[in-house]
Amino acid sequence: MLLSFASFSSLAQKQKSLKADTIKTDTLVDASNMSVRYGSKGIELQTKDNKFLFQLQSRFQFRFATPGDADPVTYDDYLQGGHTGFKINRARLKVGGHAFEPWLKYYWEYELSQSNLLDFRIMIERYKWLNFKAGQWKAEFTRERFISSGEQQMMDRSLINRSFTLDRQQGVELYGELGKGIADFSYWAAAMTGTGRGNTKNDDNHLMYFGRLQWNFMGEPLEFEGGDLEHHEKPVAIVAASAVTNQSPYTRFSQAGGGSLEGFNADTAGRYRVNQWNLESALMYKGFSGQSEWHHKYIFDTLHGNALTEMEGYYAQAGYFFHGLIESFPRQLEIAARETVYRPNVDLRNNLQRETSLACNWFFKGHKNKLTAEVNYLSLQDPTVPMVGGYRFRIQWDISL
Hints:
Blueprint: H1 2-32, E1 34-39, E2 42-47, E3 53-66, H2 75-80, E4 85-98, E5 104-111, E6 116-124, E7 131-138, H3 143-146, H4 161-164, E8 168-178, E9 185-192, E10 208-215, E11 236-248, E12 252-254, E13 257-259, E14 272-285, E15 288-301, E16 307-320, E17 333-343, E18 352-363, E19 369-382, E20 385-400
Antiparallel strand pairs: 1-2, 2-3, 3-4, 3-20, 4-5, 5-6, 6-7, 7-8, 8-9, 9-10, 10-11, 11-14, 12-13, 14-15, 15-16, 16-17, 17-18, 18-19, 19-20
Protein name: Porin
InterPro entries: Porin_dom_sf, Porin_O/P
């Protein structure tokens, strides 16, 4: 009996010692298996077998604007003007990476200043030709909106973005790249709730359906980024067409979620059937970049016999690093310009808004640390009121840490 007890005690001590050694060994293995570095997406923790990657980054925008910052929308907005001021325009926390396999990716983004969860999504990107995404993100309907606010060429998106963007939606999407050479195409096809960011349910049984087809006719896709910071030695260009249909109470979307354009009310579920399409192009070559979009939107009011309101808008934008032509010109400086026209109702003559913008970007560390100065001339023309317009000046420091 004593022998048995001694044997049992000895066995227990050995198991305890073995368990402690195992815990100690596992801890040492985990520590030695990790690498920590600062990369293009912030602080990165990665296992040496590349099974797990964790990326953490913060981004801030500090802005001065006079006589105001927001784009005027109505005639009264032009008359009231704005107020000179400084503000933190954006304060973002970004987390991304992959887990278990390099092709199982995740990403979420949080707006600290407004306490908004902007993005949260899981991506399965195992094949070039077929990928899957689920969660909430900015729909790829328009290149201008999909480009991050931290990687834009101009300080803000154009005047037409407010009326035509799908912004962030919740849903699922298939996407990929097919073919090669002149027959290289990228595609996106999604089914979404269609009620905007942060809305956990649909207002009716109608989903938003979205599709985009992009022709990469130079043999490779063009990154969603403003300005040719890479100074492409070979031209890279795309043309794309996208379309969407949705029925909901909303006639516009923004970071805040679903909303209404002027003259519409989000008062009834499924009231508006909205169909819209966009044609766009983009090019980058040796420091030059250009892009354009042409939008059409059709809003049917189902409560009033499908009364139709048709609107259209376009912009053309270009930028250049003049160091490529003049050696003494600063290498870090880019000059860019944009012209935008928006017609809120094509059935009304002389009913349009216009934006003309000129910007200068100084890149300390690419888009991760840059200073932008911009002057805009904004005007409104309507047959019922005198034409109004005015200038605006803004300067912004955008930095990612």
